[in-house]
Design brief:
single chain; mainly alpha
Amino acid sequence: MNFLKNLICGACIGIAEAIPGVSGGTVAVLLKIYDDLIGSISKLKQQFKKSILYLIPIVLGMGLGLFGFSHVITYLLEHFPMAVNFFFVGLIIGLVPMLLRRSLDGGFRVSVFWPFVLMLGIMAALAFLPGDAGESAGLVTEMDLPTGIRFFFCGIIAAVCMILPGISGSMMMVIFGVYDSVITAVSTLNIPVLIPVGLGAAIGILFGAKLVDYFLRRFPQATYFAILGLVLGSLFSLFQKAAFAFPTPEGFAALVTLAVGVVISLFFTKESKEEKAQLKA
């Protein structure tokens, strides 16, 4: 019975992670498995058998949920790119209040604001650089060494963010311009593309979370301001990618999906009592 329950919970987390802006960590908190999930990961060496038996159905469920829902996302990206990208924009805008709450927790100091300026500037520069190496240059279906390294590090970042309640791992992939390629690779089982992402995700879950936890505990405001800069900076490339046209039927649909994205993101990032407890732990 526990195996089936954890399988279903894992599937819910997997579906959430396929949607940029919806945090798998938040879903785990809502399903009341976050403590056990993080505990099993952090104590993998000390309690290997117990942790593995707990993690297997969750990881399996995540894979099934992600694979199943990836077909839906891939279809929508192919046939309704403007509406889907504006939906992502709405999800990003809806993240801002939560990130501001965490960035300003304890008051505002100029010294912790510079990471925001730096990350925002980097993302803006990447968006407007000529000859963009991101997904505007086309869907990545074959892997070379430089692209593999980029996907590897994106996998690390996405996995780390997936663990944190309120932060979406797939949104980080949108921000770094690999989401379309990765979700298409999942739906088509393109193994060469998935290997570097999967290796990065495994390292991010096992080791990267500890590094982020260190920064969040030692420099929480600066860390969240840096994340806020990354998130807002990603809007530049998303607007370019969406190729917004108005007034057109597609443009009206895009504005509707933007509003829907904002509402969904605000709903999933509002602070619950459980999440507050996780952040203080």
